[in-house]
Amino acid sequence: MSAKEIRIDENLISTALEKSARVDSVRVEEVLAKASELKGLNDEDIAVLMNISDPVLMGKLFDTAKEAKDTIYGRRLVIFAPLYISNLCANECSYCAFRASNPDVHRRALRQEEIAQEVSMLEKQGHKRILMVAGESYPQEGFDYVLNSIDTIYGVREGKGEIRRVNVNIAPLTDDEFKRLKERNIGTYQVFQETYHRDTYKKVHIKGKKTDYDWRITSLDRAMEAGINDVGIGVLYGLYDWRYETLAMMQHIRHLEDAYGVGPHTISVPRMEPAIGSDLASHPPQPIDDVTFRKLVAIIRLAVPYTGIIMSTRETANIRRETFALGVSQISAGSRTNPGGYSEGEKQDDTFAQFQLGDHRELDEVIRDVAGMGYIPSFCTGCYRLGRTGQDFMDLAKPGAIKAHCAPNALSTFMEYLIDYASPETRAIGEKAIEDELADMAPAIRERSQTMLDKIRSGERDVYV
Ligand code: SAM
Ligand code: SF4
Questions:
Q1: 366 C-alpha to ligand 2 centroid (Å)
Q2: For 96-116, what is the HEC assignment?
Q3: pLDDT, tens digit, for every residue of 119-153?
Q4: CB contact set of 20 (below 8 Å; sequence gap of 6+)
Q5: What are the tens digits of pLDDT across the range 419-441?
Q6: Of 352, 355, 356, which Cα lies nearest the Cα of 108?
Q7: Across the chain, what does the average pLDDT equal?
Q8: Three-state DSSP class for 7?
């Protein structure tokens, strides 16, 4: 099979699920002991954890996931904001407000000046990382619109603000387009398969290029072959059985690892939310409840310990808080999913938006909350700017060496935020979180961090190792 062909093997999935249909506590303990070694899990192990329902075993699963998260990521939580540049779309995904035939959504593709305006609003809040998002239909310039938009984002300087990493979530591209995207210096390219189940895929993708399952599932191969080695993967949970989807996603991950020596940099776990003009979005065929959702995050953390997990503002503040401990490593904050939403102020206009948000808090409030819980919000972009991506990143991450970079970088970028953007209340809580973190560090890393923090306090910016 060539790298660009990938077939989800349904037999592997059903065998794993059947074998683990009756779970006993001895087997669960065995899997959790294996998971603690942080070397990942196979399909049968994962299926065993999926079948846990006993509250005591569930508690043990959560504890093991917490330990894994702690060991690998410490208290860091990377912060980013999505930037929707356009809601034009030629596809007909029945769960999405942007689908072509939806008369209830107002269409808008931001002009470059409007994108710059949005970015300047985000910079004023203190954001350094943007996830650029668009529907699959670009204004007159075609694909150049995407490339120009990235240039615009990197070009905006608002006071001390700048965007240091642009990740993108746009429809699958051709080989040539991926090469051009790579030249734009993007961070991660994300695309979610939505559902790995072909029949379900066919039912919910009714028109347009997105009807082609294979074009979508092979898009990360094309990205990798074009040299974009940080890719993001995901399932839209709610369309089909979460257990099937997750095991299929594991096959996709193994395919990337086998073909390119490195799996995805991040996994997103979007759950379907109500979307204007979509009945399906309000009544997901296979919804995933909150307890199962937490279990899912814990399982992914243990199955692929070194892959980042992204939790968006689709989820409520409470669910987000609970999943940080279970393995989430990146969160969006203060998000708008309507093009122009940051410039238009307080209230999101749902007639432009892709779906409803669960967490409407502004960045400062999220940072205060997260820091109050003892986490260190990180705006770090060091790895990508020093070329530590793909395999190089994993080679450092696996033996735990990345910590010597991430921990000080998280503190220096957090301090930058606290000094330049935070409200007094947030700053006080944040500085206390930094002190606590320093106190827990190994001496050499503490010393390195303190030197970097001193530089930030004396006015230097963008300090990273
Ligand atoms: N249009 C591109 C595509 O489909 O790949 C770019 C990304 S789309 C704007 C971002 C993601 O939003 C989709 O991949 C899908 O998983 C998610 N999404 C769509 N409708 C949603 C809904 N109702 N609730 C939650 N997420 C949704
Ligand atoms: Fe368009 Fe993406 Fe929405 Fe589908 S999910 S309708 S492709 S924006």
A1: 28
A2: CCCCCCCCCCCCCECCHHHHH
A3: 999 999 999 999 999 999 999 899 999 999 999 99
A4: 27, 44, 47, 48, 50, 51
A5: 999 999 999 999 999 999 999 99
A6: 352
A7: 93
A8: coil
Instruction: Quickly count: other Cβ atoms within 10 Å of residue 260's Cβ.
Output: 18
CA of 134 to the centre of ligand 1 (A): 9
The answer to whether the CB of 237 is under 6 A from ligand 1 is no
Pocket-forming residues, ligand 2, beta carbon under 6 Å? 89, 91, 93, 96, 98-99, 135-136, 171, 210
Asked if pLDDT for residue 383 goes beyond 80, the answer is no
User: What radius of gyration, in Å, describes the C-alpha atoms of the chain?
Assistant: 21
Distance, CA of 433 to CA of 424 (rounded, Å): 14
Which among 96, 107, 201, 268 is the best mutation to test ligand 2's pocket, defined by most ligand atoms within 8 Å of the CB?
A: 96
C-alpha of residue 315 to centroid of ligand 2, in Å: 19
Give the span between the Cα atoms of 19 and 42, in whole angstroms: 13
Looking at 318-456, which runs of residues are DSSP E strands?
330-332, 376-378
Q: 């060539």: which residue's tokens?
A: 2
Measured by CA distance, the residue closest to atom 16 of ligand 1 is 236
The residue nearest atom 21 of ligand 1, judged by CA position, is 96
pLDDT (tens digit, 9 = 90+) per residue, 148-181?
A: 999 999 999 999 999 999 999 999 999 999 999 9
Give CA–CA dist 253/233, Å, rounded. Answer: 8
pLDDT in tens, 258-285: 999 999 999 999 999 999 999 999 999 9
Structure tokens at 152: 């615009």
- Exposed/middle/buried for residue 94 (C-beta within 10 Å: 0-12, 13-18, 19+): middle
Do 79 and 331 touch, CB atoms closer than 8 A? yes
The helix/strand/coil state of 337 is coil
Identify the three-state secondary structure at position 157: strand
DSSP state, residue 363? H
